[in-house]
Amino acid sequence: MNSQLPIYCACYKFKWIKCYEISSNMVSTMTFQVPIKLSSRNPGDSYPHDLQLYRNVPFGEITLEELQEISETRLKVLSLVERIHLQKLTMSVSQRRVALIEELYKQGLNEFGRLIKSSGCKSCTDMDIRIRRRDHISHFMLRSTVVFNESKKRWFFKQEARLFKWRFSSLDNEGIRQFMHINNFNFSPISQNEKENIREHLHMSSPNINDIDNTQFYRIPFFHIANLIRKRKVFVMQGEAFVPEQEMAFVFVSYFRRTLISSFEVAREARANLYNDERFTHIFTYLENNILTQNTVLVREQEMQQYISLDKLDELAETSYPLCMRVLHKALRKNHHLTHGGRIQYCLFLKGMGLSLSDAMTFWKNEFMKIMDDTAFKEHTYYIRFNYGKEGSRRDYQPYKCLRILESIVGPRDYHGCPFKHMLHDTFEEELTNCGFNASERSAIMKLSKDGQYFAACNKYYEIKHDCLNDTLFEHPNIYFNESMKHRTAYHYGSETGDAV
């Protein structure tokens, strides 16, 4: 076609992408070519299964409009994966998958809903092939989007690994067998005679399996399933592990993670080669700006700094701290000491608030020197400076996210961790009473906490403290603090000008 002007704009090593502008209708298309010679260019041969490892680069043509649309859709899906993971910590993988599917259909993202609930590859209609192809391309687009930003790359990696695990949990036995065959995993099932010979060992290693006879076990080299061995969930003999079909997800999720890590360098090269093509950089920029990892939450707004100082910490702890930090502040003021986990959790939170290193040193010294001498305190100065990136590796350590706080190991003398999860019932109720909550308010928070809805319980705590509704659950203590400060300062100045309701 004379009306087509080819523009070579990217290269996945030996995998070229061509882009064409068709002047007659101004539709841009992108052509992918894979380096591996396929037996057929029939898309059905390239997408025989609903679950993919994304090892090959996509091929075919797609308009830039569709490319942006499916990339944005995948970003929404990954954001939902993160949200459901955080909100449903007490749920099983299959329950989280069901919650994700329900949310996808609710939001009209039916294609992904259909993919995620698939049991394998029983259907290969044109619609199935189209959906699988869009899944494939959108994964590659987001992979290339995040490669130059470490925090966003980690976020993408975590959500994709979770999504893969949830999708794998929906496969039936035939779906798993086909997945292994398509991806050349030569894990052989053991025979009934072999099962009889090691039946006692299989019972001991898999106590949750009631019916050994009707459970398929696979023989897998032990180095593929280090996590299962560490958790003593499999029987190992002569370098081979005997893995029940219920635990096969561990094998493939680990493989998927390794594949994804090794693929980032290829994606990095592809993104670099697209640097001068504004049509693609526009899509990448839009996607990258909409990936909110919430890793960096340091307060940088100059107008906020006027409210944060040493002499205001007691007041801020009462009005704007999340409960986890309020508990730590009170314990430090009372005992003039915190255990190691509490010191790190609270010190990084204060750093995230915007408290300077010099003020932090003054704050901790004023407390600790009430129970120790100057020599003993010098040991702690190193760790305070370390948290601020002034000692040791000099990394810019970030305040802990809620998920990390939830995963804390908390002992009887500790005050860190998440009070909605870790605090004893009576102590928890007393703490809420000290916050000024009435019986009905305490009951609402404690019920959510008891049901394992820790993020929802924290959100309810915020709503009661601030007398407002909040429709976005907090995933970071410093984001809670920032939102509280914005709410209170807006209300304060609104009151003075007569604008507050």
Layout of helices and strands, plus pairs?
Layout: E1 4-12, E2 15-22, E3 27-32, H1 43-46, E4 60-63, H2 64-87, H3 93-106, H4 110-116, H5 126-146, H6 150-168, H7 173-182, E5 188-189, H8 192-197, H9 199-205, E6 217-221, H10 226-230, E7 235-237, E8 240-244, H11 248-273, H12 278-289, H13 302-305, H14 313-319, H15 323-335, H16 340-353, H17 357-368, H18 374-387, H19 402-406, H20 419-422, H21 425-434, H22 439-450, H23 454-466, H24 477-497
Antiparallel strand pairs: 1-2, 2-3, 3-4, 5-6, 6-8, 7-8
Nutshell version of this structure?
Keywords: 4Fe-4S, DNA replication, DNA-binding, Iron, Iron-sulfur, Metal-binding, Primosome. With 501 residues, the chain is an alpha+beta fold.
Strand content: 5-15%
Number-wise, the strands total 8
| Total domain units | 3
- Alpha carbon gap, first and last residue: 65 Å
**CA radius of gyration:** 27 Å
Number of helices: 24
Oligomer: single chain
InterPro entries: DNA_primase_C, DNA_primase_lsu_euk, DNA_primase_lsu_euk/arc
Pfam family, one: DNA_primase_lrg
GO molecular function: 4 iron, 4 sulfur cluster binding; DNA binding; metal ion binding
GO cellular component, one term: alpha DNA polymerase:primase complex
Task: Describe the overall structure.
- This protein is of the alpha+beta class and 501 residues long.
- It folds into 3 domains: 4-158 and 254-289, no CATH class; 174-248, no CATH class; 302-497, no CATH class.
- The protein is built from 24 helices and 8 strands.
- A 4-stranded antiparallel sheet has the order 1-2-3-4.
- Strand 7 and strand 8 form a beta hairpin.
- Helix 3 packs across helix 6 (150-168) and helix 17 packs antiparallel against helix 18 (374-387).
- The longest helix has 26 residues, at 248-273.
- The protein is globular.
- It starts with a strand and ends with a helix.
- InterPro entries: DNA_primase_C (IPR058560), DNA_primase_lsu_euk (IPR016558), DNA_primase_lsu_euk/arc (IPR007238).
- Residues 314-481 form the DNA primase large subunit C-terminal domain.
- Its cofactor is [4Fe-4S] cluster.
- Belongs to the eukaryotic-type primase large subunit family.
- This is DNA primase large subunit.
